[in-house]
Amino acid sequence: MRTEILCMHFLFTWRYKPIKPNNSKDLLINEEIKAAEVRVIGPNNEQVGIMKIDDARTYAYNNNVDLVFIVPNAQPPVCRAIDYGKFCFERDKREKEAKKKQVIVKVKEVQLSCRIEQHDFDTRVNHAKKFLAEGNKVKAVVRFKGREMSHMELGREVIAKFEEACRDAGVAEKKPVLEGRFMSIILSPAKQDKK
Q1: Is 11 within the bounds of a domain?
Q2: Which domain holds residue 73?
Q3: Residue 195: inside a domain, yes or no?
Q4: 39 and 78, same domain (yes or no)
Q5: Contacts by 151-159 with C-beta closer than 8 Å and gap 24+?
Q6: What are the pLDDT digits (tens) for 92-127?
Q7: Is residue 14 situated within a structural domain?
């Protein structure tokens, strides 16, 4: 009996709560605006003036558009009389265009050791050149095991040799860095001359 009451209470409260938009970027519109006075910008980006909120809503309704709360921190807050659906569509379209133009650079890691064989070293260099050609950065890491910590010059030599082998594909951002038992260097793609 108690379980049924709790379930009914949950269903009632769940249905009672108003539906909020999924997108946190959504702005307040029409009746949701609680400011007493607002500065109104018209449908054609013209300055209409400062109005009481009821007059601003009436102005928007007479022009068959919505009153959208654009700048809440201004004194008085700024509202715009526009078609809200069209406004959201254009905003989302601009964001998608900006996202397409955005370049994402990944950092690929290549593991080396102080006692790496020449064939393994060449394989790692080929992988690094391929990553750099794709526009990614490469982080070459030498891990020191056991007593190798007392011979860090071997790790520096391996990293210097790796940097030299990749010179035509990428350039080092800075000198090798020692972090605990790891020594690393980051290579960025070399800028190609566009013909």
Answers
A1: no
A2: 23-97
A3: no
A4: yes
A5: 151/114, 152/178, 152/183, 154/114, 154/115, 155/114, 155/183, 156/183, 158/112, 158/113, 158/114, 158/116, 158/121, 159/112, 159/183, 159/184, 159/185
A6: 888 888 887 777 777 888 888 888 888 988 888 898
A7: no
